[in-house]
Structures are given as C-alpha cells and as structure tokens.
Amino acid sequence: MSYGRKLRAVVAGGGVGGLAAGLALARAGWEVRVFERASAIGEIGAGLQLGPNGWRALDALGVAERVEVEAFEPEAIEMRRGASGRVMARVPLGAAARRRWGGPYLQVHRADLIAALHDALEAAAPGAVIPGAAAVGYENAGAGAALHLVDGREEEADLVVGADGLRSALRSAMLGPEAPRFTGHVAWRATVPAARLETVPAAAATVWAGRGRHAVTYPLRGGALVNFVGLVQEDWRRESWTEPGDPAALRAAYAGWAPELAAIIDAIDAPWRWALFDRAPLPRWSDGRVVLLGDACHPMLPSLAQGAAQALEDAAALAGRLGARPDDIPAALRAHFKERIARVSRVQREARANLVRFHRDDPVTRFGARLVHRLAPSWFQSRLDWLYAG
C-alpha cells in the first residue's frame, strides 16, 4: 500500500447504493470511479420512502438538505382496509417522527435522489461517474484488486465495491450462482399526476391491506405526483424492474377495493411490474479487497420500505469503517460485515413478515389493529424504534 497517494476505489453500479458509496468514500478522502451499466445515470420514474434512519445516512453524506427540499414529508403512516378504506392503524410522522427518531420520514422520487447523489459526487470528484460500463467480475491481485468490465477493460484499485443490484455479477463471482426463492408475489408500480385525480389523496403513506394483496400509495414532489406500489399473489416469475404491465390486469387485481384507491389505479396508463424473489442472508460480503453493498448482498422485499435506506446505511458505514487510509482493507471489510449483518438480516425478516401481515383480512386481525390503535396508539411507534432510531 502506497502512502504517497490517495487510495483508489472503483464501484460497480450507479444506482442509489453505488452513488452513495462513491460519495461516502470521496468524502473520506479516496479517489473514486463509479461504473454504471446504463448509458446514462437515471431511473424509471418511481417513488421510494426514506425513514429517519435513511435521512441520517443522507445527512452524513451531505445531501439531506437538498433531498428534503424535493421530497414530501407525510403526516402519518396509515393502514386501511383495502375493501372499505377504513383506517385500522395510524403512526404519526412529521414533527412526531423528528422528535422520536431524530429525523424526518420522507417520500422522494427515485430520480430526484439519484440526481442529488450524482451531483454531490461530481462536485466532490469531477468525472467520477462513467456510464455505459457494465461490470462482469473482479480479481484480487497482490496488494490491490481489479474490476472487470464487459468491454475487456480492467480497472485496478485498492478497493472494489459491488453495488450492481439484484442480479449482481460481482456477487456471482464471489459466491457462485444462486437460485433465489420466488415469493409467489408480483409487484406493480406507477406514478400518477395528482392533477388527474378528482380527490386529493391523504398526505400520508397509506397501506391498503387485503386478502392476498396490498397496495401502498403516497404523494411525491410536493404532492404533484402520487406513487403506487401493489403486491399481489401471482405465479409470474420475471425478475425485472422494467417489464411493462397491462393496466387492465392491474385494475382487475384490485377490483372492488375502496373508491379512493380505485381512482388512483384507474388513472395509471403504463404500470411496471416485477416478480418478487427472496434471498437468504449471505455468509459473507467480501473477498479480499472486494465488498458487496445494498441489493447485491441483502435485497429486500418492498413491504418495509427499507431497500434504499439500507443501501445508504451501508455506504456511510463502509466509509466510516475504512476512513481515508485503513491499515488492513480486507480486515476492515470483514468487520463491516459483522457490524451490519444482524441489522440488515432483521430488516429482511421484518419485510417478509409485513408481507404476511398486510395480506390478512380476517375479523380478528382487523379488530385487534383497531383496538391497539384506540387504546395504545404509541405501540405502533415503539415497534419501529429499533429501525428508525437505530
């Protein structure tokens, strides 16, 4: 290891996790390059939710203020019965979230988050982001490592970060091919201009729960857009974020549900859908000077809204563990895994459990939720303390 130069990190993947990792390492004093498969940095339009833990990671990266300006801060998380729209439980957010968990709960367009991270990285390390460069593997060699790109190039570095998503080439190279477990569910997603709706939706993150399916709706961009995500039990197994869906099939999946939800679905012209696969926690995230991050090592079902937040946490924790000049990079990466694995594994478990909870539609479950909401409303908040305050 040379002490006469900055250490160099190369990152595979220019999504939320990859850009955050590049930014965190650049702020820690590393020379950084981020290689993204797509020809331009961006995302298909969709929203995501960032709990207070995700906001704290953004704050550590220096982009929280910009994201807050462009995000929507909801008043509450509401669980409603899908068929009737009746509120079964409510968790106050807004000022209550800031007081209890030390930060806001935000709803942000994915493209806005990507742009904030990208611009901050370019300001810290001009020219760091290189589009049109897909990673296919890596190797450890002597006192360094190299990222292999599809065009045959090898990018040498002191550290290689695999933030290349659900179908990570670096994860396969590190741990071999794996067969993910199909959950039996398909997810739909879309955004709708609020101007197309006769009734303005509630300023809340709303879970519409029902037997065998649920949906989540919430405002974006100051209420100008409404985000929709729907999870339905179905045996369709294409794991792609960019598969167009049939609007008529989406409407049929939620036929007979509450009018407020039906109005949002009716306004969707071009939904996207993807099959949901589950993966068990990995035995390790690193190999020598190569480390996995975000969906590449701990993909999560969307039913806890933590995928982006956990990738941001990964990036901040990794840079904090390494610092500007670690004495032993492989040992630091192993310590990073030990620090993070219990938390992200719990998030994965809770996301799976939520999928079951949201798809119950029996009188006992509905009555129990309403009773707790009426007699001990802070109980629902306490159930989230480990996640949002952690």
In short:
This protein has 390 residues and is α/β, with parallel strands linked by helices.
Could you name the key traits of this structure?
FAD/NAD(P)-binding domain; 2 domains; monooxygenase activity; D-Amino Acid Oxidase, Chain A, domain 2; six-stranded mixed sheet; monooxygenase; eight-stranded mixed sheet; globular; Monooxygenase; alpha/beta; 390 residues; 13 helices
What does this protein look like?
With 390 residues, this protein is α/β, with parallel strands linked by helices. Helices cover 36% and strands 26% of the residues. It has helices spanning 16-27, 52-61, 64-70, 95-101, 110-124, 169-175, 247-253, 259-266, 307-322, 329-358, 363-375, 378-382, 385-388; strands at residues 8-12, 31-35, 47-50, 76-81, 87-92, 106-109, 129-130, 135-141, 144-149, 154-157, 159-162, 181-193, 205-210, 213-220, 225-233, 243-244, 272-278, 286-287, 290-292. The longest helix has 30 residues, at 329-358. The radius of gyration is 21 Å and the shape is globular. The model has no long low-confidence stretch (mean pLDDT 91).
CATH architecture identity of the largest domain: 3-Layer(bba) Sandwich
Choose one word for the global shape. globular
Secondary structural class: alpha/beta
For the record, what is the CATH homologous superfamily label of the largest domain? FAD/NAD(P)-binding domain
**Strand arrangement, largest sheet?**
5-4-13-14-15-12-17-16
Pfam families: FAD_binding_3
Keywords: FAD, Flavoprotein, Monooxygenase, Oxidoreductase
Cofactor: FAD
GO molecular function: FAD binding; monooxygenase activity
